[in-house]
Amino acid sequence: MSSVLRPASTGQDPLIAGNYRPISSHLAITPPVSVVIPAMNEAENLPYVFKTLPSWIHEVVLVDGNSTDETVEVARSLWPDVKVVKQRGKGKGDALTTGFQAATGDIIVMVDADGSADGNEIVSYVSALVSGADFAKGSRFANGGGTDDMTFIRKLGNWALCTAVNRKFGARYTDLCYGYNAFWRHCLDKIELDCTGFEIETVMNIRVVKAGLKVQEIPSHEYLRIHGTSNLRAVRDGLRVLKVILRERSNRRALRRRPQHSPLLDSVRGEVS
């Protein structure tokens, strides 16, 4: 894995052009970046998503959740080299796991398909990773972030759940349930993604902390969904997130009670096949 940060060249130096990927007038990187987008019936929103994606990314992986509209056709017209992967299961967590497996980049960025995320922010995530972070976590409530798409009840619920995670796992998060994140591929070797729903972000946020990975929050602005209706249900999905927190805390206590020489400790390290 390479994490080299270099000034971008404005000339035609073949060494720079052949080994580094310019992402701005003063920054270039060597790691290829994959953007994973789970989508189901998002044909109307994809133009807004794709127009902000930077041209220097290595690949776009669209995970199609058996769409009945023209999601796949629109994606291919907007980004001819898009890698389309059909989702076999159901749920956002299942879609993201499918996309992570298909991605080939050293850095993986997860972006929602509803038009609420600004692809121009990807440079901030990548910069954090090549500067030493393992996991770059988007936050709507960090200084410089914001949201146009959360009701008071959702903000209150997110705050309560985030506070619970911080206290129980020693994290310092300002946001918990947000789907705009980026990480080095090696993180997948240290966390086990075994959930299928919207709680996938919470699982990832908890397990990167439990694995001792270096996390850096990135201020991010969440915009309103442009077309359609979200499948998120505040009460239902909030309860699923709470169950995840309680389960992860219970698992942590169980592991602490086990003897150090127990072979079961080896099973904590999850693998994504």
From TrEMBL:
- Please give the Pfam families that the UniProt record associates with this protein: Glycos_transf_2 (PF00535)
Start and end residues of each Glycosyltransferase 2-like domain? 34-156
The UniProt entry, under InterPro entries, shows:
Glyco_trans_2-like (IPR001173), Glycosyltransferase_2 (IPR050256), Nucleotide-diphossugar_trans (IPR029044)
- Would you say which domain of life the source belongs to? Bacteria
Q: Which family does it belong to?
A: Belongs to the glycosyltransferase 2 family.
The protein's name = Glycosyltransferase family 2 protein
